[in-house]
Amino acid sequence: MKTFSSLLIVIGVIGIAAASLGLGCAGAKVGTSESSGGNNGGGVSGGGSTGSSGFFVDTDASSAPPDTRKADLMPDVEPFGYDDAGSPICLAILSYGQVGTCGGQNCPSDAFMNFMNTYSKNLNNGTTSTMTMITTRTTLTDDFLNHYNVIVLQALEENAYTGLWTFTSAEVDALKRWVTEKGGALITMTGYGSNSTEVTPLNQLLGFSGISYNTPDIYNACLDNKCYCRSDSVPFSSWSTTCTDCATLTKGLAGKEVGVWWGRSINCTGSECQFFATDASGVNVGVAKVVGKGRVVAWADEWVTYTSQWGLASAPGRYDNNPECAAYLPKVAYAVPQFWYNVFSWSSPDMQWCFVINVPDSDPGQQVIP
Q1: Above 50 in pLDDT, residue 60?
Q2: Architecture in CATH of 4-366
Q3: Which runs of E-coded beta strand occur in the chain?
Q4: What does the domain layout of the chain look like in residue ranges?
Q5: What is the band of 106 on the pLDDT scale with cuts at 50, 70, 90?
Q6: pTM for the full predicted model
């Protein structure tokens, strides 16, 4: 059974690059908004039907912070903004939708946030990205979307059993413009609950891209009786090396796996489709596509967000000391940090100059290949 948390969180995530929307300028400052929209549980305003955000870029800052870009950076490439200390904000991420909260024995799905917050710092220990989580239905407008250069669509519903979100044609058009004209990076996942109709709002928003999710369940049975070692996920390792950008999308994943469980396969039409994860039976698990000026990545499952799947020393699994599990543990066989590094790298090519992830030696199995 999968359940959801419902809260709004703003966290610092560091060094994950994203496609520039053209909003960053040398004098920009980044902070938390004080908009008048609804508040989801305190902290930062956001949510509510008016769709305010928890992030803003002030392009009227009076003085420009020091230029901390790499020496070989093209002069016309600028960050999305800067924090108050003058560090570049490469990535303004919005996680939109309910967040799954039951992944095996270690249920919280905060690893996706905590990993970047803990390990993705630059050499000066500076924060270079900001993530905003909005878990309530919020209207998608040009102004709302333009606060971000990466959007991750999660469970677009009130809970695992009911309340699917629906979107107006104006909202669909706004998201399309954000991707195709502004160069936004859109990342989607599914498989949060047993109700296969959860793909309906995703497919509505993805219609412009030629990408869609199917309703039949995939990877809903363990094949080797070792899934308990993996906190109940099924290993996936069928990475492609033949698509145009597979060198980026599947970098460092040869011989490595990520966990999936009860996901939904993906369709993609058009010559730009890149199927970077397809199993032996032809089921598409990961698809990437350039759409106008932006990029879309669709993944068939959500278990890559769960703490239990990241194999980090800070979140040990129940069977880490079981000799029968030695070769199957996420910290040995899985490469979830590398997976996310690849996804953000590909979807955010203009911001790779400030993409930094530093995994400590205590997590040798999760070192990221840049």
Answers
A1: no
A2: 3-Layer(aba) Sandwich (3.40)
A3: 4-5, 9-13, 29-31, 56-58, 81-82, 88-89, 91-96, 99-100, 129-134, 150-153, 185-188, 211-218, 234-236, 258-260, 263-268, 273-278, 284-291, 294-299
A4: 4-366
A5: low
A6: 0.78
